[in-house]
Amino acid sequence: MTELRKRGGGGDPDSTDNISDKEADGEDRLGLCGEEDGDLEGDCKAYTPDVPPSTDNTPQCLNKALEGLSSRWRNWWVRGILSMTMISGFFLIIYLGPIMLIVVVMSVQIKCFQEIITIGYRVYHSYELPWFRTLSWYFLICVNYFFYGETVADYFGALVQREEPLQFLVRYHRFISFTLYVIGFCMFVLSLVKKHYRLQFYMFAWTHVTLLIVVTQSHLVIQNLFEGMIWFIVPISIVICNDIMAYLFGFFFGRTPLIKLSPKKTWEGFIGGFFSTVVFGFIFAYLLSQYQYFVCPVEYNSETNRFAVECEPSSLFVMQEYRLPAMVQNVIRWETVKLYPFQIHSIALSTFASLIGPFGGFFASGFKRAFKIKDFADTIPGHGGIMDRFDCQYLMATFVHVYIASFIRGPNPSKVLQQLLVLQPEQQLSIFNTLRAHLREKGMLPPAVPEAQ
Amino acid sequence: MTELRHRGTTDNELQHQQSDDKGSESESKAERDGASDSETKPDFGVPDVPVPPDDTPEVLNKALSGLSSRWKNWWVRGILTLAMISFFFVIIYLGPMVLMMIVLCVQIKCFQEIITIGYSVYHSYHLPWFRTLSWYFLLCVNYFFYGETVTDYFFSLVQREEPLRILSKYHRFISFTLYLSGFCMFVLSLVKKHYRLQFYMFGWTHVTLLIIVTQSHLIIHNLFEGMIWFIVPISCVICNDIMAYMFGFFFGRTPLIKLSPKKTWEGFIGGFFATIVFGILLSYVMAGVRYFVCPVEFNNDTNRFTVDCEPSELFQLQDYTLPSVLESLTGWTTVKLYPFQIHSIALSSFASLIGPFGGFFASGFKRAFKIKDFANTIPGHGGIMDRFDCQYLMATFVNVYIASFIRGPNPSKVIQQLLALRLDQQLHIFNSLKAHLTEKGLLPALEEAA
């Protein structure tokens, strides 16, 4: 293991003399050298070699087509073309339907996890300890199994009731997930090696924080998806639009820097992005609210064994008339305006995406500066890794989920019914009576008829 | 930051002079198995964690002044153990409210101990935002969890009071907003030269929250199921600790794991059997007492907790036929047991076999960060975290066990969710339920039409 430490030390003994101040911590291997973050030259350059310089991943055909242009415009074009490609890919996936979307979300999650864990390996030079990789992926599988199991049990209730092994798995789902996790935990404890305790604990914590961030978000995204594809498409589009609009406004009008963390962001971009995103969200929500395909909750039809997206649109997606406030009336000379209520909600979503979403981006920028990496990975030419594209989405998925839970809908009726059926018969009877009294009170049931004795 | 690093250096030199038995010499430190890959240079992590002063109260010191060091240590530990166990009985007697308070205090203390270690490791005392942010996140997560618990168990109380009702309806949104504010404060507090440090502390705080706060809330959930689900697991873990120590002390020969050289296989196996026996006996004693067995409920009229109910079948004596092997041994054909005692065997097994892994995890953690104990709160025993490391997994296991094998969903929670649905959805569920109950024969078939 001596080679490993020396390699981590920056390769050559000479550089260690330059880092004497930070060496005093003894923590340099664990990266506290990052305290000199602002300046990449001199002392901590020792660390950048371990993260390979970004290879130019651009496909050959693009390179040929753009070789005439100067470097700045070329970069602009590469980014532009890739953006168009990604957006088209997005539309294609939406067209293909919910199952495809779930698969794509799953793949993105795995790729993001892999990117972050790879950075962790580089920071801690822990490539040579094979248990880490196995354990990290094992924990990813455990947590995904737990979350997907809960989702499947909720949404595929009928399917589950039919198949006997699935019923068993669902009934003891938490216990099985917990057992799997405990096995991983015990393997971790048994794998602790004498000289690498701290490293191993760091990787353990790194894995868990990554799981917390990446996996929970992706499952909230899927839950939002099941509410109706519009709850998946509109938030993501809004974040993308904000990114692009802020970039364009900053490019053309940018003057005042926004935050020291990301010197390229400007106030003009921020505010311009905010307003254009609100407008975009408003219009986009109007367009999508008309289609049942987007608006209806995704349901699994047990008979045809496929997803059905058909329903009576809820009141959120039915045009309503709103009276304009007097001020606006004077300006536009309309008295009422027809809107979908969902468009009002989209303003809230856009506001969040423009004001708070960028903090997710700043968090990722800070993270990249802290660990001295330019991009999370090189998957997308001109854009960096998958994580780079999704950093602003980070908080959006949670916000949408919380928003839906608090303001839009109550608990899921099929889940409640499922829970009801699991209770003891006496409890079911008592709930039945309570519910009957409640419904009678509300007038949904005819009042009690005196029973013949 | 230069002063901080130099302070680290100075402390190390002081350590050289002060303590010898802790082996804090930089060279010997490099040889200690707790070192990670930074032994080529003196590791300055330890000096910042102060040498634990001898915290033993004076009275104890006087009483034990005559004995040799080894026996003195044994007696100090023994007396403190008895003190802690008595304290445990006292708070059980005082009831569920006090238990919840104690769990909360223990949680806060454990959190503080671990965060302090993080500060020491990362020399981040001088960045005041960290401490504020860490405690703020603790508050947020606790608010979220306690809010969910309060909403579940104090449902009627919450529905009565208007401000509580609003807080409860938008609970998730409010918690998320609070957390977001903390997150944005963190991003805004990133200082140019300390990015990595700050991210480390952020990660450290979150992992600590994940470990400690979730466990403590699962303990409280278990408590509400019935105090027996709180007392028996904790007692099993304590018993396993003590029994493994005793067996190891008297019979210990073969080391168990490199991580904790004091643990032995004899202690492990002896502790396993002793804990199972103890668990069966303790559950027999407790299952007969209603105070322990009934779910804790909040009575709206008297505004206090009541523990009064008809014990479920889990806590009623039943006859079990012994397998023929045991029959020939003991000469009994059947034996009267509480079903709960069978479950206690599962709990004891987990406590003896997997619980120690929590202890090994904590030992590895202490070695990794070169600390002897988490803190010095309890003389002879170290910090609160030292006492609770084996409980770590137990609380989750009990919660999962209850959810999977003992009970289904909480009926009051189901009603609550039902009443929150839209009326047409309620009607739909009502009809499904009626069909189901009629099929089961619980409703007369001639029930009036809905």
**Level of helix content of chain A?**
55-70%
Number of strands of chain B: 6
Number of strands of chain A: 6
Helix/strand-derived category of chain B reads mainly alpha
The main pleated sheet of chain B reads as: 2 strands, antiparallel
Q: Roughly how much helix do the residues of chain B carry, as a percent range? A: 55-70%
**Order of helix and strand elements from N to C terminus of chain A:** HHHHHHHHHHHHEEHHEEEHEHHHHHH
Question: Helix tally of chain A?
Answer: 21
What is the general shape of chain B? globular
Alpha-carbon Rg of chain B, integer: 26 Å
Radius of gyration of chain A, whole Å: 27 Å
- Shape call of chain A: flat
- Give the distance, in angstroms, between the N- and C-terminal Cα atoms of chain B: 75 Å
Q: Order the strands across the largest sheet of chain A as they lie in space.
A: 1-2
- Lateral strand order in the biggest sheet of chain B: 1-2
Low-confidence segments of chain B, ≥5 residues, pLDDT <50? 1-53, 446-450
Describe the model.
- The complex is a heterodimer of chains A (453) and B (450).
- Chain A is mainly alpha-helical and 453 residues long.
- Chain A has a domain at 96-130 and 193-410.
- Chain A has helices spanning 2-8, 13-18, 20-23, 60-65, 71-96, 98-124, 130-155, 157-162, 164-171, 173-190, 197-227, 230-253, 267-288, 292-295, 326-332, 341-355, 357-370, 386-390, 393-408, 413-422, 425-442; strands at residues 257-259, 262-266, 299-301, 306-308, 320-323, 336-339.
- In chain A, a hairpin with a 4-residue loop joins β3 (299-301) and β4 (306-308).
- Chain B is mostly helical.
- Chain B has a domain at 411-438.
- Chain B has 20 helices and six strands.
- Chain B has a two-stranded antiparallel ribbon with strand order 1-2. Chain B has a two-stranded antiparallel sheet with strand order 3-4.
- In chain B, β3 and β4 form a beta hairpin.
- In chain B, α10 (195-225) crosses α11, α11 (228-251) crosses α18 and α12 packs antiparallel against α15.
- The longest helix of chain B is centred in the middle third of the chain and has 31 residues, at 195-225.
- Chain B starts with a helix and ends in a 10-residue tail after the last helix.
- Residues 1-53 and 446-450 of chain B have low confidence and may be disordered.
- At the A-B interface, α1, α3, α10, α11 and α17 of A face α1, α9, α10, α16 and α18 of B.
- Chain A: Keywords: Lipid biosynthesis, Lipid metabolism, Membrane, Nucleotidyltransferase, Phospholipid biosynthesis, Phospholipid metabolism, Transferase, Transmembrane, Transmembrane helix.
- Chain A: Its EC number is 2.7.7.41.
- Chain A: Its main location: membrane.
- Chain A: Belongs to the CDS family.
- Chain A: This is Phosphatidate cytidylyltransferase.
